[in-house]
Design goal:
about 230 residues; SDR family oxidoreductase; Rossmann fold; Sc_DH/Rdtase_CS; alpha/beta; SDR_fam; single chain
Length: about 230
């Protein structure tokens, strides 16, 4: 039986790169996005890479708990999930004392709560089989304070804390847990910024890092990876 990966927010940027990377290796893919057209495009890309790959794509807004739970139910019915990548996220810059009302709630619900609910729904199958790997897509904003980080930074600091707790909880079950902390990556979040593309990391480099961390022997786990642009933070 083939293996399966669930990647939230899989149609753009890092999420898309991870889906394509694992499809290349023969993994079945489960993913979600808010835009149905983007999901159809991704399905075609996955088939072009590997026609044997089975894909489940779900239109969902993961800021809403009921849609997270719907995704989890469909995923558990589709396949046992061997790898879970909590990647979905939204970035709205702003200082804590003046960012628009509602930014905090939206980013906490999207960036943190969705991962919390999904982990709780997917882990039972992993715990029963005593195997699996959970990746949390954090950010250097979750380890370094900077102006205008606001609620985004708060959500990513919380994500790192949750992932560290989960790592300790899953040790007895043979489940690996890894935090990926990327710096500035050339994705839609940076659209319109007047900087050369060379200043950014490639989403494919983050995907390759996830693949490499997944491929260690059962005796080892990468707990935390920080990846930055070669020329430093932006």
């Amino acid at each position: 039986m083939g293996k399966c990966i669930l990647v939230t927010g899989g149609t753009k940027g890092i999420g898309r790169a991870i889906c394509l990377r694992f499809a290349k290796e023969g993994f079945d893919i489960i993913t979600c996005a808010r835009n149905a057209d983007d999901l159809q495009t991704l399905e075609k890309e996955l088939q072009a890479i590997n026609s044997d790959v089975k894909a489940l794509t779900v239109q969902a807004d993961l800021s809403k708990k009921e849609e997270v739970m719907n995704l989890a139910q469909k995923a558990n019915e589709f396949s046992k999930v061997d790898v879970l990548v909590n990647n979905t996220g939204v970035f709205l810059p702003g200082a804590i004392h003046e960012e628009p009302e509602g930014n905090f709630e939206l980013m906490m619900e999207t960036n943190l709560y969705s991962a919390y609910y999904l982990v709780r729904a997917i882990l039972p199958q992993m715990m029963e089989s005593k195997s699996g790997h959970v990746f949390s897509m954090g950010s250097i904003a979750g380890t370094t304070a900077y102006p205008n980080g606001g609620s985004y930074a708060i959500s990513k600091w919380a994500m790192l804390g949750m992932t560290k707790c989960l790592r300790e909880e899953m040790k007895p079950f043979g489940i690996k847990v890894t935090s990926i902390l990327p710096g500035a990556t050339f994705t839609a979040s940076w659209e319109g910024v007047d900087l050369p593309i060379e200043r950014f990391m490639k989403a494919e480099d983050v995907a390759d890092t996830v693949w490499a961390a997944y491929n260690l022997s059962p005796a080892s786990v990468v707990e935390e990876i920080t990846i930055r642009p070669q020329l430093g933070d932006i």
